[in-house]
Design brief:
Helices cover 44% and strands 17% of the residues. It is of the alpha/beta class. It folds into two domains: 136 residues, Rossmann fold (3-Layer(aba) Sandwich), CATH 3.40.50.2300; 149 residues, Response regulator (Rossmann fold), CATH 3.40.50.2300. The protein has a seven-stranded mixed sheet, with helices on both faces. α2 crosses α11. The radius of gyration is 26 Å and the shape is elongated.
Length: 327
């Protein structure tokens, strides 16, 4: 058979074989989001696990088809602006952050990259136009931080001895710190309890704040809502125990490690929903039209072991209202 004919037949056979081999799908593009963290990785482990779980609902799995660029402020709010700018420069597709300070830093860095937040008083600070249609590039989960602080102070007033004032620990680095201070003073007047305000933006200042509260005769202390305080919950709970101070907290993660009492939504459940929202944005949802969600359930958790160590007798009626009692 002539050489030309043999080559022609080989070409025909090769073409036929090629049509029999199924086409391989193109490798899925890896999506990239940025995480603007207030604290540091080890402290945020449960939040990150819940965030990843929520992202997984839309098929976004870190290490497979998703990359997360983590930036950590390590409790230093002044670093947030630079970290947010770095995420924008890295061309992430979504920024996930927490608290009013994290949201403000991310929003200052970009008006186009979607921002999905955990907590933060975005309505009171004017960062969104409404809960139902936030507008712009911002959406997320509100946790009623400011609204629940008066409720927490009232609960603490029921537990703490009545022969002295209640202290409230606030972080002056938060944009709503002074509003919180005024609201707590007003709540104290309504409860018939004097309120002592102590301020701290670092661990050393927290220690000094406990000393100041004790020095002013405080009989109980409310740790106001703040991402930094949550990031240092182990140290804060230990300080409360060392000073024999009954203390109220935002998250049950405080009571799980020895805090006296907490009242608020589920920390990990809320972070999981943040992940769900971030996944929806990655799949094409417009943050401007994604309603800001709010928790529907709040849990009161009491640690009776801590109450006994403090010499507190918790009324049966109070325990009956608790969602969980740690014994």
């Amino acid at each position: 058979m002539p050489l030309r004919e043999r080559m022609r037949r080989r070409g025909v056979m090769a073409a036929a074989v090629a049509t029999m081999v199924p086409c391989q799908p193109a490798t899925a593009a890896v999506r990239r989001i940025g995480y603007l963290g207030i604290s540091e990785p080890v402290i945020s482990a449960s939040a990150l696990a819940a965030l990843r779980e929520g992202l997984g609902e839309s098929g976004h799995v870190e290490g497979r088809n998703l990359a997360i660029d983590y930036r950590w402020a390590e409790g230093r709010y002044e670093r947030l602006a630079g970290l947010a700018a770095a995420l924008v420069a890295g061309r992430v597709e979504v920024i996930v952050t927490t608290g009013s300070v994290g949201v403000a830093a991310a929003r200052e860095a970009t008006s186009t990259i979607p921002i999905v937040f955990f907590g933060g008083d975005v309505l009171g600070t004017g960062m969104v136009s409404s809960i139902s249609r936030p507008g712009g590039n911002l959406t997320g989960i509100s946790i009623f931080s400011r609204e629940l602080n008066p409720k927490r102070l009232a609960l603490l007033s029921e537990l703490a001895p009545a022969d002295g004032p209640l202290a409230v620990l606030v972080n002056p680095g938060m944009s709503n710190a002074e509003d919180t201070a005024r609201a707590m003073a007003e709540t104290g007047r309504m409860l018939g309890r004097a309120v002592v305000l102590v301020r701290a933006g670092s661990l050393g200042e927290v220690a000094a704040a406990f000393g100041a509260a004790v020095g002013q005769g405080a009989r109980g202390l409310l740790v106001a809502s703040d991402p930094f305080f949550n990031s240092r919950r182990a140290e804060i709970v230990a300080m409360a125990a060392a000073h024999g101070m009954p203390a109220m907290y935002e998250w049950r993660e405080f009571t799980d490690i020895g805090g006296l009492v907490s009242y608020g939504p589920s920390y990990t459940g809320t972070w999981r929903q943040v992940g769900v929202y971030a996944g929806r944005v990655l799949t094409g949802a417009d943050p401007a039209s994604l309603p800001i969600q709010q928790p529907a359930r709040f849990e009161l958790v009491v640690n009776l072991v801590t109450a006994k160590a403090l010499g507190l007798a918790v009324a049966p009626a109070f325990l009956a209202r608790a969602d969980e009692v740690i014994e």
